[in-house]
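Letters spell out the chain; backbone shape is given numerically. Take this protein:
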Amino acid sequence: MRVAIIGLGLIGGSIGLGLKKADKSDCEVVGYVRRPEAASLAMNMGMVDRVEMSLEDTVKEAEMVIVATPVLTIKEIMSKIADSLPHGCIVTDTGSTKVQVMKWAGDLLPPTVDFVGGHPMAGKETYGMKTAEADLFQGSVYCLTPAKKASSQAVDQVEDMVKKLGAVPFFIDAQEHDELVAGTSHLSFLLSAALVTSTASEPTWEKMKKLAGSGYRDVTRLASGSPEVNAQICLTNQQAILHWLDRFIDELQRYRHLVNLGDERLKETLAEANKLRQEWLNKAK
């Protein structure tokens, strides 16, 4: 099977490494790059069998095309590859939002291909090709949102690819996906970034940073993520993210009120948060 990957960063590169590890010689992986040095690195890391520097040559004769770019770039890629996609080809993506991506796929891709939207719930705070790893998706949930006209065979093939990566397929509607991940994923990196900008921009930061320990490091980890990727996520999921930001602001105001009053209920509130997180951790194991 020939798989073309457009976007060999953390996610796309890890998919290539994962497929090569799982399929050995049964899967030919072709990667799209724009720079010769990126081509050399991709080949040296073993994430692809060969590289191409034109989108047309990358998708030529491909049975599956994986678009693993920042979400706004997906629209541009779909537009550019539409006329070059082989008849019967399966197209999928790894975008962190799905409503816009599904619309673009319906508007831009030819009716002769099947589209199955995807979003692996895995990653790291680091990004780029050098950070890719074959086991990145092991045990993680991988969201799948098939287009209405996608054939059952195409859906099965994408599901099989996900399983080869060691991930757990999870079928979900695009709208529901965007609403839910806005609270668990998108809100998280915004809170992480906001903590950094609200503390590290203060005049006292020079002394404060000497006292910033593991707690600060853990909570701000996501602020090290790709600014481009995260900004584009926000631009394609505005209403859902605004809902969760407002919900968090309300909750933060409640905590502020309890701290300000020196209220005994603060301990109860913290205990409830502790309990809820532990329940989630226990179920996640």
Strands lie at 2-6, 28-32, 50-52, 64-67, 90-93, 114-120, 141-146, 168-171. The first strand starts at residue 2 and ends at 6. The chain has two domains: 2-172, 176-284. Residues 176-284 form a domain with the 6-phosphogluconate dehydrogenase C-terminal fold fold (CATH 1.10.3660.10).
